[in-house]
Every structure is written in structure tokens, then in C-alpha cells.
Design a protein that fits this description.
Blueprint: E1 17-21, E2 24-29, E3 57-60, E4 67-68, E5 75-76, E6 82-85, E7 93-95, E8 97-98, E9 106-113, E10 127-132, E11 135-140, E12 149-158, E13 163-173, E14 184-187, E15 192-200, E16 210-215, E17 226-228, E18 232-235, E19 238-245, E20 254-263, E21 269-279, E22 286-288, E23 304-309, E24 315-320, E25 334-339, E26 344-347, E27 354-359, E28 365-370, E29 385-390, E30 395-398, E31 414-415, E32 421-422, E33 426-427, E34 433-438, E35 453-458, E36 463-466, E37 480-485, E38 491-496, E39 513-518, E40 521-524, E41 538-543, E42 549-554, E43 570-575, E44 580-584, E45 597-602, E46 608-613, E47 626-631, E48 636-640, E49 655-659, E50 665-670, E51 685-690
Length: 694
């Protein structure tokens, strides 16, 4: 049945049936009274014997939505639907109570959410009844933001004989929620690229929110230079829009504040203010490596990844699909070398997917991985191979070959766990030795384990040896990957799932460990103080130039006497000469870390370490994986990739991390657009940051 005209949304919840009659409508409400209704004034329900029914009573329904339990007796006037803003208190709402059988009836209020489970109610302090007798009023508010939404509110009156009620819908309206917006900066002549903001609106749709923005200093940034994109509904009350800031064409330096306001359809609003700075030159120390030669410099038209840098930070090699760096159309990815002194960019011109480069300290030799089939001799494996490029002679040489020059019969330096990504090989300082992983079974005699192994190619003698073996020469019984090498090629480190490379391991040790191969002897680096395997996986080894210091990431909690309390992945630094091991994390706490860490890299002298972490670093909070530099002598941390506003970048800075041999220059890749002026390609680029010597 339909509710009486004007009744609240939940009138039907009171088991009242509405019957149409001439001139109005009637409600049938169950009760226990056996008193009949005056037949001269209203219709009457009777049983078969002619007595008044004890099962139901037909009452004249209130045309405006109020309800009664007895005709002409107790009734509550209808209540209109209302909207209240959070923390607001509405004017008292008079309650019209008529026909009460007592002078001071009991009045109570109940609520139930119309959005969440019906058990969700407003707090009792939000709905109170004031006054006495029949002079009552309902007071609504204040209500906290956590209760935003729609509720059915019912006022119930009980006079000891019967009850009456009136219901209405209350919307608790919270203003649109805007997040904190990081300060922005650029240099004269460059706009600030668009960035996205996500708001939350508890109303019908975030697209109904009205956005406005204003600048505090029109001489630096006028209101016309603030462009707000349309709100895109993301679902769940979330909406996304973009902000583009274009400083005045006059190129005035200075700072201002931008106030962004969001107003909903009920008039509730919120605002956030962020700073904008226009500088003559950038002061964050970050350089865009994968930029064009245009004036002023601009980001390239492609994706740039996997940087490596030589010993002094002069030459940076990276992979890119861009066609405006040095000509050509490397759609599959080619290698480029930026000479920061000469100001030039050179393309290697490899005809096929090419990535994962490393470069010698003098910048002459580049080792890399490529799927090209026409670089050096016959290529029959139809997969990735390891090559060395001599920048002095402009020649290529395949390194993933057997001692007789036969190419590997399976791919080399491929990471199946990362969508067949390519892993960088290691190369000695003089370019003589190249270490790599390969699934090939024909690079050395007796390779029958059917898993990836670590190999070392001596380019001077033309010999290839397998490194991932035990001290007695037994081949590993599980894959070995991610190789690192000292500057002279005498010390190698790698990770392996094998359980037979050193004594004391069992088949139950099913996680990766880090091993060192030196002087034809294999040892485990990721061991506890007692020499046992750690209780978690250890990966990503890195060596300094001498091979004395080894860094790696580990989820093990028992590598030191003092355990890792929170079960996070930390960085460990092993001094192979002193036999000591140090735990490093973003908190500089030897036992506790609030974030995971990974992919360490060491300077030649072992005095500076770079790594990535998803933890929080004061002043640089963006919720992303970022890079950090740790100086061992001073035990200090430096954030890698600060924005032009000297805050957190709007893209992570923790991927592709590498550093020069002297530790001064750090390279990385990032999708951030606020690290360098003119970065508008919306793609991952290669960046560089210079620090003081460690």
C-alpha cells in the first residue's frame, strides 16, 4: 500500500495500512484496545458478531503525513525532510502533539541509516527533545563528519494508552573533502605541468561539486592562469580533477598562494591552500637527462629507463623509445649516451629491444642486454643476449657465448618474474670481465641442472666459466640470478635459490640467499651471526670496487643478534674484511623499520649507498617508492629527487637507482613532472642529482 500523502520515507515501517475512502484515506494500525470507534464520525471495522474488531482499527490518516493510533486521539504532526551540515545545530523544530491521554506524554527519537546497514544510528546527543508536556521541540545537532549520510528519523509519542509517530529523512551533509596539496614551483618561462587532485563528496555525485581557485598575488600568477579540469567520477564518492598553473608571461619571479575551494549542492564548502614559487633557476639540484637539445630544454617524446653513470658522472647511458633525442625511431628501445660535459646525446643504433646497460668508470665500455639478432655474428637463440659496446672503436661484441664463441642456446639476463624484463650484466672497471645470468646449457661443459646460472666471460682470453657453483664445483640445484662484481672482477656476488652451494643448507631453506664467489670459493653472505641461513629471502647484491663491502636487501629478521622487530625488508651492509654486518633502513633504527627497502647500490669506495623504500621520510611524503642516499661515515640520509618546490615529487624516485663511482652523482628514473622545468611528456624520464662527496 502507498503511504499517506506527505508521510516520511519510513512510514510503512510502522505496519500501517492505508485504505482509500471518500474525502481522504485511512490507516489500519494494529492495537490491543477493544474500544470501538464512533460510527457517527468514522467507519468502523466489525467482526462477524457485529462487535468492534480487536484485530485492527481504522483511523483517519493525517493528510500531511502525521500519524495517530486512535481516531481523534493521539497524533503527531508531520515533519519535513531536512539537511544539516556537520557541526551545525538546527533551530528547534516544534512538535505538534494532539489528543494525548495524559498531560506529559513520553517523547523519544530513533534513527536508522538509509545508506549503511540499518543498525547504524546517529548518536543520541545529535537528536534531543526539549520542553515538557505538549510543548515539545526536536533539536538536531551538532553531528560529526563521520556520520555524514542519509538517515530515517522517527519521533515516537507514548501517552500510556497508545502511541503515535512521525518520520522524516535527515541528510547529514559533509562538505567536499579536499586533500592536502603540495607546494609547486617552476622557473621563469615554464608552466607547471598538470597534476591531479582527488576529492570526496558524500552527496549524490562528486561531479556536482563546484570548484573555484584564486591567487594571492596576481603579479606572479593570475586567476586566469589557474585552470581546473572537469571532475571525473571515480565511484565511491571520489572524484578526480586536474590543476594546471601557468605563470604570467611577464616572467616575474616570486611566490604566491593558491586557494582552492570546493562547494557542494547544499552550499557546504571546504578549501585548501598551497604555495606556488617562480624562480630564476632551479635549486633542487635535479637534471633531466633524457631531454631534447631544444632551447629551452624539453622532455623527450618517449619513455626513458634504466640509467647507468660512469665514474665521475660525465656519461649517462639509458634506454629510450624517444625519437627526438638523437634522431631515428627506436620504437622497441635503444641505448643513448649523454655527455654532460660536451652537451651531446649519442644513440648506439641497436636494431631491436635493448635495455639494462652498465658502463665502466672511464665511460668507454657499455655492457647491455638486447634482443637484436644482427649485432655480432650469428644469433640463433631468438632471445636476449649480453653484449659489450666499445665507445672508442664503435664496435659490438657478444658476451653470452661459450669459450669457443658459440652463442647461448637460451636467453641471457631475462627476469621471468618481471614480465621478461631484462637484468643488467656486471662489467669490470677495465671492461675485461662481464658477468651475467643465463638459462643456456651450452656455455660450459656439464651444465645439466636446467636452471639459470651465473657466468663470467673473460673478453681478453675468450673464456667463459660458471660462477654459481659450490666450492667443490658442484652445480646449483636451483636458479641463480642478479650478479654483482668488484672492479677487478675477482669478487662476484649473486642471489640463488640453491640449497647445495655451501655446507649446512637443507631443502627446507626455500628462499633466496646471497652468495660470494672469490678465489674459487663460494660462501653465503646472508647468514645469521651463528652462520646459519637467514629466515627470509635475501636479494639484490651490490659490491664496491674492492669487493670488501657487500650490500643486499633481506626479509630475514635474524641476520643480526638484535632481531628486526617489524618483519620489514631492510638493507644490510657486510664488511667482508672485518666480518661485521650492519642493518640500514629509513628510520636509521637497527631493530625497527616502518617501510620496506630494496635494490641497494654502492659507490666505489663503499662510503655511499643508495636504495629505495616505501617508508615515510619527513618533508617528502607522497605515498610512493622513493630513493635515498645513505652516507656511511656520518650515518645520514638524503632524499633523492626533491621537487622544484623542494618537497616530495609527484612520482616515485626509487626506480633505476645507480650512482657514480665517486658517489657524487645519482641517476634514477621517475614519472614525476615536477622535478625539472619543461617536463610535460607525461612519461617516465631519466634524471640525475648531484650531491656533495660522501
Amino acid at each position: 500500500s502507498e503511504p499517506a500523502p506527505g508521510a516520511g520515507e519510513d512510514a510503512a515501517a510502522f505496519d500501517s495500512a492505508t485504505i482509500p475512502v471518500d474525502g481522504g484515506s485511512w490507516d489500519a494500525a494494529p492495537h490491543t484496545s477493544d474500544v470501538g470507534v464512533d460510527a457517527s464520525s468514522q467507519p468502523q471495522a466489525v467482526d462477524a458478531s457485529g462487535d468492534a474488531s480487536s484485530e485492527a482499527e481504522l483511523d483517519a490518516g493525517s493528510p500531511d503525513g502525521g500519524s495517530t493510533s486512535d481516531s481523534g486521539a493521539l497524533a503527531v504532526g508531520a515533519l519535513e525532510d531536512r539537511v544539516i551540515q556537520i557541526q551545525q545545530t538546527l533551530e528547534p523544530i516544534p512538535l505538534t502533539i494532539t489528543g494525548a491521554a495524559m498531560a506529559d506524554p513520553t517523547v523519544t527519537v530513533a534513527s536508522a541509516s538509509l545508506d549503511a546497514p540499518s543498525a547504524t544510528q546517529l548518536p543520541s546527543t545529535a537528536l534531543t527533545v526539549t520542553g515538557s508536556g505538549l510543548d515539545r521541540a526536536l533539536v538536531i545537532g551538532p553531528i560529526e563528519a563521520s556520520f555524514a549520510g542519509r538517515y530515517s528519523v522517527t519521533v515516537l509519542v507514548d501517552d500510556g494508552v497508545s502511541t503515535a509517530s512521525a518520520a522524516f529523512t535527515l541528510r547529514v551533509n559533509a562538505p567536499p573533502a579536499l586533500p592536502l596539496i603540495a607546494d609547486s614551483a617552476t622557473v621563469v618561462g615554464f608552466p607547471i605541468p598538470p597534476f591531479s587532485v582527488v576529492l570526496y563528496e558524500d552527496g549524490p555525485s562528486p561531479t556536482t561539486v563546484e570548484l573555484t581557485a584564486a591567487s594571492s598575488d596576481p603579479s606572479v600568477l593570475s586567476d586566469d592562469g589557474i585552470a581546473l579540469g572537469p571532475i571525473i567520477d571515480l565511484g565511491g564518492g571520489r572524484g578526480s580533477f586536474s590543476i594546471t598553473l601557468t605563470p604570467n608571461a611577464a616572467g616575474v619571479e616570486g611566490s604566491c598562494e593558491v586557494t582552492l575551494q570546493a562547494r557542494d549542492d547544499e552550499g557546504a564548502s571546504s578549501s585548501q591552500t598551497f604555495g606556488v614559487t617562480i624562480r630564476a633557476t632551479a635549486t633542487n639540484g635535479v637534471e633531466l637527462v633524457s631531454r631534447t637539445s631544444a632551447t629551452p630544454p624539453a622532455s623527450s617524446n618517449g619513455l626513458s629507463l634504466s640509467p647507468a653513470v660512469d665514474g665521475q658522472g660525465r656519461h649517462v647511458v639509458f634506454s629510450s623509445t624517444a625519437s627526438d633525442l638523437a634522431g631515428g625511431s627506436p620504437s622497441a628501445g635503444d641505448l643513448f649516451v649523454r655527455d654532460r660535459v660536451a652537451g651531446t646525446v649519442t644513440r648506439l643504433g641497436v636494431p631491436g629491444r635493448t635495455d639494462a646497460p652498465t658502463i665502466t668508470p672511464d665511460g668507454r665500455f657499455i655492457a647491455f642486454v638486447s634482443l637484436a639478432s644482427s649485432l655480432a655474428g650469428t644469433d640463433t637463440n631468438q632471445g636476449a643476449d649480453v653484449f659489450v659496446y666499445d665507445r672508442q672503436t664503435a664496435t659490438f661484441e657478444r658476451a653470452s657465448v661459450a669459450s669457443d664463441g658459440t652463442p647461448g642456446n637460451q636467453p641471457s639476463s631475462v627476469d621471468p618474474s618481471a614480465g621478461n624484463g631484462l637484468r643488467p650484466p656486471a662489467i669490470s672497471d677495465d671492461g675485461r670481465y662481464v658477468a651475467f645470468e643465463s638459462e643456456a646449457t651450452n656455455l660450459v661443459a656439464g651444465d645439466t641442472n636446467g636452471v639459470a646460472d651465473i657466468f663470467l666471460r673473460d673478453r681478453l682470453t675468450g673464456t667463459t666459466t660458471r660462477i654459481s657453483v659450490s666450492s667443490s664445483g658442484a652445480q646449483a640445484n636451483a636458479p641463480s640470478t642478479e650478479v654483482a662484481m668488484s672492479g677487478d672482477g675477482a669478487v662476484l656476488a649473486f642471489e640463488s635459490m640453491a640449497t647445495n652451494l655451501v655446507d649446512g643448507e637443507t631443502e627446507s631453506d626455500s628462499h633466496a640467499d646471497v652468495y660470494v664467489r672469490a678465489a674459487n670459493s663460494t660462501s653465503r653472505a646472508s647468514s645469521t651471526a651463528g652462520g646459519a641461513p637467514g629466515n627470509g629471502a635475501s636479494t639484490s647484491p651490490a659490491l664496491d670496487a674492492t669487493g670488501r663491502h657487500l650490500a643486499f636487501a633481506s626479509a630475514a629478521t635474524d641476520l643480526l643478534t638484535a632481531p628486526e622487530l617489524y618483519g620489514k625488508i631492510d638493507i644490510y651492509l657486510l664488511d667482508r674484511q672485518a666480518g661485521t654486518k650492519t642493518r640500514i633502513n629509513l628510520d636509521l633504527n637497527p631493530q625497527a623499520s616502518q617501510g620496506h627497502c630494496g635494490t641497494p647500490r654502492l659507490s666505489a669506495g663503499g662510503s655511499r649507498l643508495v636504495f629505495r623504500s616505501d617508508g615515510i621520510f619527513p618533508g617528502y611524503v607522497n605515498g610512493l617508492i622513493n630513493g635515498y642516499a645513505f652516507d656511511l661515515p656520518s650515518s645520514t640520509l638524503t632524499f633523492v629527487g626533491p621537487s622544484l618546490a623542494l618537497g616530495a615529487p609527484n612520482g616515485g624516485s626509487g626506480y633505476g637507482l645507480n650512482l657514480s663511482a665517486d658517489g657524487r652523482v645519482i641517476v634514477f628514473q621517475s614519472s614525476a613532472s615536477n622535478l625539472f622545468p619543461g617536463d610535460t611528456n607525461g612519461a617516465i624520464d631519466v634524471f640525475l642529482q648531484e650531491l656533495a662527496e660522501p
